[in-house]
Amino acid sequence: MYERLTELIRQGDFQEALYEFQDEYFHIDERSFSDAGKLCVLEATLWESLRDCVAEFDALTKACQYDYGNYEIYYMLALYYMDINIDKAYLCMEMALHYCTDQEDRAVIESSFVELKSTGRVRVRNVSVMILSYNEPELLKKCITSVEENIPQGAFEIVVVDNASTELKTLDYLRSKRDTADYPFLLIENPENYGFSAGCNIGAANCNPENDIFFLNNDAILTPNAMFWLRMALYEDRNVGAAGAMSNSASLQEIDKSALIEFFLGKKDGDKDKIDSVLKVLQDADDEKTPWHKRLPLDQAIWAFEQYAASHCAPLRNPYIRSFRLTGFAVLVSRAAILELAREGQVFDEYFSPAYFEDDDLGIRIARAGFKQYLCKNSLIYHNGGGFGGNNEAMEKGREKFIQKWGFDIWNYSMPWIETCDRILELAAEKKGVLRVADFTCDFGANAAYLKSTFPDIYVAGVCNNPFAAGIAHNIVDDVIYGDLNCIRIPWPEHSFDVVIAEKKNVSKGQIGRCLKADGTTFLYEE
Fold first, then answer.
1. Strand 459-464 to strand 479-482: parallel, antiparallel, or no bridges (unpaired)?
2. Does residue 267 sit in the same domain as residue 407?
3. By the 8 A CB rule, do 232 and 85 touch?
4. Is residue 394 part of a domain?
5. Does the residue 122 lie in any domain?
6. Do 188 and 291 lie in a common domain?
7. Contact 282/264 with Cβ under 8 angstroms?
8. Which residues of the chain register pLDDT less than 50?
9. How far apart (Å, rounded) are the C-alpha atoms in residues 235 and 506?
10. What is the pLDDT of residue 527?
């Protein structure tokens, strides 16, 4: 298929190739996903030849949405990143090998991969997947299988710490896996349940000391490309310390149910009965207290999430949401961050045992060490929940411990002013040029993270009332100062901001006026 288009590109007859592509693209919805993906790869090849990297990238995104398993996508991405970010080029080449089954093409990719590694410039580390296990053997099997299927061979090890499981099936499975795995697999059996923090620290201490560490719950399941995009985020630059994924069930990282409904309403292929049953649950407003995935049989819930993930695991121009904490059910932490934070062997602070808020604590420590943390919009990991789920008493104890350690309640800093931010995004969409925002409610940068996840070019200047908050926010906002909100000298040009966000009780009209353009907009909060 597409022989004529392929030949025109090979001959360098790009004008005629464009006409041929347009004719073929008109019928793309009639093609199988695999054939549609191949057409988009040819489109990317055409734009590469015409030296249009933007159109090339966009075509590769479409190709991945149709068929994420097409190895040519990742090989072309590797070439795209080669002179931009050699670490990301390495990861793309590795993924091309992961998907490639054509022996002739595989030899070409392997040769390029070896050449890339020989430069001595690649700093990508392998990954230690550290799984804390406690019962739930069927979920655990799915978890480990998803790791084996979705991370390239030779790029990972698995370290399982079993927290004294009482179900023999769990231990039998783990021992069998330890004895038969064709990759590094380490099993540590604790004599008692040490809780989340201590169990993870035992695992971290036994991971390969050269590797980055991916902390993964035993009830979490990787979807295709989930780890790939997490690693791409971790190697975005040298200051990224951690990366997390979107999920069906994870605090502040959940895919909105409306997005899932929209996806399944528009899904034309697949088992119609399955789709209808998923939609029925998603649209059921009578049982909002029970998460949607808990109202479906396990396999069907996983299927539904994987269907969504398969169409959303593609390259994105703006793939990250900046954050100051990531949920610990699935978090990839760089070795550099671990060396900085865990000099005494504690990645997670065992003060929070048995569980809850140890991930928030880790996020604050990573941020204070100067590392960025990215939530990846194109990395999706199913999370079944469980463990301490629903245990409000344990949650409150963890929250109290966090307040005692840090002196503030992180729940007061985690959410943006969504209604205000949405109105600012509307202004950004209308404005020609870069929208400038002065945020006197900056705190840890939640507003900026929300705004930049949609429009990364929005300029956000944060004004914090203390240096601790400014130290966290500086990895999210474009500039930050701290002091008395009403009296601090503003270092930016007067009347240079399109938008000012402030609390009326804390900031005077005069201070706001010094920042705001004559035609600017103020968003004031009043208690």
1. parallel
2. no
3. no
4. yes
5. no
6. no
7. yes
8. 386-389
9. 40
10. 65
- Our CA dihedral for 339, 342, 345, 346, rounded to 10 degrees, sits at -150
296 Cβ contact partners less than 8 Å away, ≥ 6 residues apart: 277, 278, 281, 304
* DSSP output for 405-468: HHSS-GGGTSS--HHHHHHHHHHHHH-SS--EEEETT-TTTHHHHHHHHH-TT-EEEEEESSHH
Residues 225, 149: contact at Cβ < 8 Å?
A: no
Q: Could you list the residue range(s) of the whole structural domain that residue 486 is in?
A: 418-525
- The first and second tokens of residue 215, run together, are 């902390």
**CATH number of the domain that 112 lies in?**
1.25.40.10
470 in a structural domain: yes
Q: Judge whether 25 lies within some domain.
A: yes
Backbone phi, then psi, for 457, in 5-degree steps? -85, -10
Verify that 363 and 488 share a domain, yes or no.
no
**CA–CA dist 494, 516 (Å, integer):** 7
Cα(425)–Cα(362) distance, rounded to whole angstroms?
31
Tell me how long the chain is.
527
CA gap 96, 75 in Å, rounded: 5
pLDDT tens string 174-183: 999 999 999 9
Domain-terminating residue out of 309, 330, 350: 309
Q: Which of 412, 445, 478 is the last residue of a domain?
A: 412
Tokens of 57: 């990238």
Is 136 found in the same domain as 72? Answer: no
The rounded distance, in Å, linking the Cα atoms of 320 and 329 is 18
What is the tally of structural domains in the chain? 4
Q: Which two tokens stand for residue 453?
A: 């996840």
pLDDT score for 389: 47
